[in-house]
Design brief:
about 850 residues, mainly alpha, eight-stranded mixed beta sheet, 33 helices, 8 strands
Amino acid sequence: MPSTRHALVTVFGALFIIGATAYGTGQLIVPSPPPTAVSIPPAFAASPKTGKPLSSMVWLIIVDGLRYDFGSDPERMPHHARRFHASTHAEIWASPVSMTSSAVLTYGTGQRGDIDQIVNNETGTKTAYHHLLQSIRDAGLISAVTGDHSWFQLYEGAMHHAHPDPEGVALEVDYNDEIFAAAHGFLELDPRPNFVVAHFVTPDHQAHAYGITDDRYRVHMRDFDAALETLLEAIPDDATVFVTSDHGATDNGTHGTDSPIQRRSPIFAYGQGVVGGERALADPRVLDQTVLPSTFAALLGIPAPAASRGHLLADWLDTTPEHRAQLACQDLARLRVYAEAETSAAAVAELKIDGACAAGDSATQVLAAESAARDLDALISRSGVKGSPWGVMVPAGTLLLCMLLGLWTARTLWGHGMRQLWPIGLAFAALLSATLALLLHLERLPGNWHVRLYITIMGLGFALLLVGLWRYRKTAALLDRRPEWLALVMPGLLVLTYTRTAQPVSYIVFAILLVATLVSGVPRVEGSPVAAKGRWRLLAKPWEAAIAVVLVAALWRVGFKGQDYLYGTLETQPTALFVVALVSIAAYAIFAWYTAPTGTSSSLTIVLGLVAGLSLWARRAAPPWVCVTLWPLLFILGAILALKRRRHHAELAFIGSYTFVSRDAELPLLLATLAVAHIIGRVLARYDALTASELGRPLARPSAVLWVITLLLSWSFTQRVAVQLGLDFTYLDWGAAAFRDPEAPIWRIGLGIAAKHIVARGLLIYAILAALPAPVRPMVGLGHLLAQLFRLATLCFMLYFARDSFWTALRVMGDLPHAFVGVFVGAVAFAFTCRPRGPATVASPGASPS
């Protein structure tokens, strides 16, 4: 058995990996602040003909989710398509993270929405960058915005007139009339606004609700097209109009990734200051959304956003060639200042762009300025962790650290060295590569092929699992002979599964393994320990099996849905929810009392059960200082009782501490997962008692160890979704440990979130590990820790390589904090299994069965 020193090294090694990985992934996720050295550029030069800006009124009309093929097709949008082809027009692409908030960020600041914008799309944080609406206000001009909420979140307080979308509207609800009315109202303002944004979200919502190929979407877009034409006809002739979209969409309305169909949109412009009529351009270039802010600023004669990554559309401006060249070179000078601040003057000098505006005629200077601007944009992309080739060192470093810690610990416990384990590492790397390839390409398949392929892969996987259970003797023998390799399958495939897929897969795998465990324990070569004369009977007691099956079935929503885990309208009834939570605590306390071993103090069990129930009341009624005091004290009490091996009492103390930082809705779900874990522990202990004398501790066999680790991993994933009350990070309890204090520090809330998930995960693992025989616990503890380490590395790779997909990155970011929790709890649990308990022999996972 490993020594205490080895256990401590493992814990501190895990903590180091958590810290290093958190810092590295933070460089990918946390938005970089704007460089302080960038000052607001001068205003664009006025027209040499009039001495005034090219336009006094610019309209930006955004048809949310409008695909290029749809908007340019006269059959589907006749008015829009006619104006598109008659005006200066082009194809424009959204940023790789093809979401609305990313596009709105780009329209206002010229910054592309990256992985950090995924967080902003969910939280609505105000931008720190200098933006177009601020330039408009600083210049004494007037802006008006109606439509999508992202404008009012990113540029809060910057617009003079605002009419956001209505709150809490279902996807299928059409509220175009309200936004069109607001846009028409802007035409009647006096003084009239100089910059108007009308962002129509309903087309995107209709695409999500019905799909772009559905007749309901087509009818909606025809009606929208007619209403849009009415608005365009009402806009005065001396205004400038840009009509575009924020992103494209697949046939089923999905967007968020970097596939072309989700990024392509139409754009056309006409009116004052834009070339039109017979000189209208059919621009052959594929435009980037970053070109728009500087173009708007040039039309209005105001400073461009200081940190814009794009370069204005000089060819679209209706002015003299010399003025176009002047504006293009002025915008290049601005971009150069920004690039030097983001990178370095030396790096910019290496591009050799000094002569871009020094030679040739005006047209040549415009082309040279555009080329130099592209070089500067590429340089900025390469400068950060996200765009640098060295960014891959974040997940690669995590994987290397995890492998080193796993190798050291495995060698300590089993005596295996590099020669035996390096092939397993290579095999894991191959499986990880296959997982990443599927992750990157599956969601980019056209139509619903990604769903079909997903169902096919999952179906084959579950079929293999059922076949393995049906032929359990051969499966157990194979696992015992080559456990290192087969661990890549069970639990390896759970470790490698993408978060959204891991939710149903974990639930289904656990349900299958649970039924098998309740019936016969752990599959073994010799057959079931309770089978007699070819007839099967339950290894679990009937009441244990009934409770476990009912609770797992009741949690089916947690296994398949992204949110809404309680039935009916319970979550909207605080009193009823409080009663349900209180009854759950009472029922669990009775369960703990009934299942406690002989000699456990019943009076202390009752007291701690009452304390847990009172914690539920105190959390909502006691003064904040009382809650802040009792919450950690109960946690400390639980730790002391655990060290004294007072398992059931420690658990109730931890539940009391947890209750202080919980939400009522999550308590019944948490306690259900813990009750099922306890039943599994009781069944495994009974299995060991029935077979130990006959077979010499079969739970120490590799097949049994891998079986228990898979149970732990699959059920802990289901538990984490239940406790969070949703799959994504937005469902985290952002009020944990606030205790109704509006001035609660952010560190306390963060500590409360971490503590509740650590307690929940720890109690689940504790319930199963503590029931195992002492010699087996380090094996299961180590295997579980290794699985959590490799899960963390896998998520880091997923985040890095899929960072241009909104949905993938969102789900992975929501899973990462739980991977940190898993590693920490796994390391502590392994350390506890290494506590001296008298002489014991731990078999190698590669040993032959007894």
